[in-house]
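Record 1 of the preview.
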Amino acid sequence: MHKTSVSNPFIVLTAAALLSMVSCAKVGIVDPEAEQQLKPIGFSVLESNMTKAALNDKGHYNFGVFAYKNTDATNNVMSNYLVGYQDAANKKGYSMSASSQTTLGDAPGSANGESMWQYEKLGSDEYTYTGSDGYYTKTQTAYMSNNANQYLRFWDYSSSSTVFYAYAPYINGTGTASFNNSNKTLTIPDGSIEHAFVENGATSDHCDYLYAATSVPTAQYNTDVPLAFKRLNAKVNIKFWEDIEGYSVQIINLTSGTGAYGVSAAPSIKTAQGTVPETYSYTQGSYYSKSGVAIDFSDPANPVVAQATGTTTDAALKFTVPADAAIGTTKSAASASPTTYYAIPKTNTTGFTFHVSYELTSTTGEKIKVQDATVYVPVDNTNWVANNAYTYIFKITKGSTGTTGDPGTINPNDPEPKPTPALYPIVFDGCTVVDYTSVDTDHLIN
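->
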């Protein structure tokens, strides 16, 4: 346990809880009035507007679906069907053909019964692709359906509505998603949802977990049905700016050598030790790295998410330093780390102590390196909520902690922030004038 007195940290923290952009999906339905025959249920995932990205644009090429008619609570229309996407231009997702998928088309989003989103013949025994173009192969079990066979499903006008419950990405492994129609609960098993770090805006279907539901009344069987996905993770980013006049600041790696990395955030539990003077101790904390959820869809428009117990870790969060040679000098121009962290949103009992090193460059070219400067972010700012994005904005000031000397071995997992300043300005003491020294000499004039 460490004990330290309160001091002003070198970094001023602003925690902005920005609502994350919600991915939007639409389920396209074939017009049942066009012909006197059964009409297949088809899926089409679209962009609804410029602020909502299509599911496949975010790196998702599948999602799972459970569906029930309101007239039949026992026999489901779809039981954890895998719905897959074919990106033929970039050879991503699933390899499909019109001969296998009878509703396959090239007009995603059109209410014409054709789409790149398919489920027919994507059962684990039916999907047979083994090529090397880039599509998922049948040997990639994680991307295969839990159903051996997936048949085309049809709209039934004897029921007044059909309800779809969806999640992404599809889960196939030691556990799988399940749905209880008696209490309208979708369960994703504990350990299936993981935290993740993604660099430079990359997308991944296993760093972003989503859920959605919609009830489709008979009158809308022939129109596109909105299925708006929300995120089960929270998104966390960090940014830096500085206001040290006469110097530019560049964030540098915290550690060096093999395995070097930039900014770290050590989970830290802050405990008050006394009030006069006010002191605190900082001990190692933890956060969730894996979890599961139970989603109550009793009201499909307002689902309730309950997190499972989950798995914790005390490893420091690691963020790559901003690429800028000099970080911004205003908050609006703050420089971002290329790292995005997707967090498991459970109530935290721990804050985080951020560790950062940086280099000052004066207007004359003089350089000063400040290593292992720290600031504590309190627990109130780290209670991440699902489907929210958090940006932690740090300001580097002349009151910086850390050291300009030899830091020794830096411990990125140290939960204790440093109270000692690192930057001591050069100042002049009270100026004095030394009195003249009297020297007398005698000389004769003859």
